[in-house]
Amino acid sequence: LNQVMREERIAILGIQEAHLTQDFIDKIKHSFDKRLHVEWSQGTNPNKGGIAFVINKELMNINNVRFKEVIPGRAAMLTVPWNDNKRLRILNIYAPNDQAGNANFWKEIPSELVRQSIAPPSVILGDFNIVEDSIDRLPNRIDNPETVTSLREMRTDMNLLDGWRTTNPTEKNYTHYAKGHGSHSRLDRIYTTTALNKTATDWTIEQPAIKTDHKMVTVRLTNPEMPYIGRGRWTMQIHIIKNKRFMEGLIEKGIEQQKAETNATGRTETNNSQTRYKSFKDDVIRLARKIAKEDTPKILKRITQLEQE
């Protein structure tokens, strides 16, 4: 999880069917407190349901982040600073799997928001356990009309759009595969307000590098009033310098670079000292990233073993 959020530069990750306990949260805090912050709601059964927000502290300041449980283990609101006095409100949901419970869930959410004096969400994300259109199931089929109507009424009242479907009106893609039935469905979705959807980009559905039976849905939310901030300059982790494979590869690449310079006979726009040096640096960066990706899980596993001894 830590590696996925770092490599994909995910600021906020919503997790459903989390099955969390306080002991597990304490372990995450102990191992990743400098990088990750977790807000969670499990409900009364640690073996069923549960939702969580994981915040990347390298990308976000958590000082003014607010978390509110709406329906224990099923729905929770994260409020983060957006611009000036504005706030971005993200509702993480894990909807019931049964039709009756699912239909009632979409009525219970707005009722609880009103009862607890919580402002409507700017974004709803999670596992909806229902699709609105037959195109989102393979084989195609229509879900229970009463349940679909209940969901649509809630999102219409909140002025929310299915961002991925709005961007890809005819495309077929799915987030869950049911082995028992051999069926695919797009159960996991992100809804945004109409205004927020205008500047939302990079809608994706992809398999994360985490063992899960659901694919990950992502979107880049852009505040048009904020200045553009780039990805920053990549830096190599210090421990890579002591890695034997890296040093051997670095020396090999360096010798190749030196020979290329020595044997160079002419200069063109595409073949000169500057382009060759850039190629050398790119090769070194790729090597360092590859080794870091392979070694980081081993290092974390070793740290855990030492802590248990």
UniProtKB/TrEMBL annotation:
Site (Important for catalytic activity): D188
UniProt similarity note: Belongs to the DNA repair enzymes AP/ExoA family.
Keyword DNA repair: no
Gene3D superfamilies: Endonuclease/exonuclease/phosphatase
GO biological process: base-excision repair
Name the record gives this protein: DNase I-like protein
Keyword Transcription recorded: no
Cofactor mode of binding and number, as noted: Probably binds two magnesium or manganese ions per subunit.
Any coiled-coil regions, as ranges: none
Listed Pfam families: Exo_endo_phos
Matches recorded under SUPFAM superfamilies: DNase I-like (SSF56219)
Site (Transition state stabilizer): N129
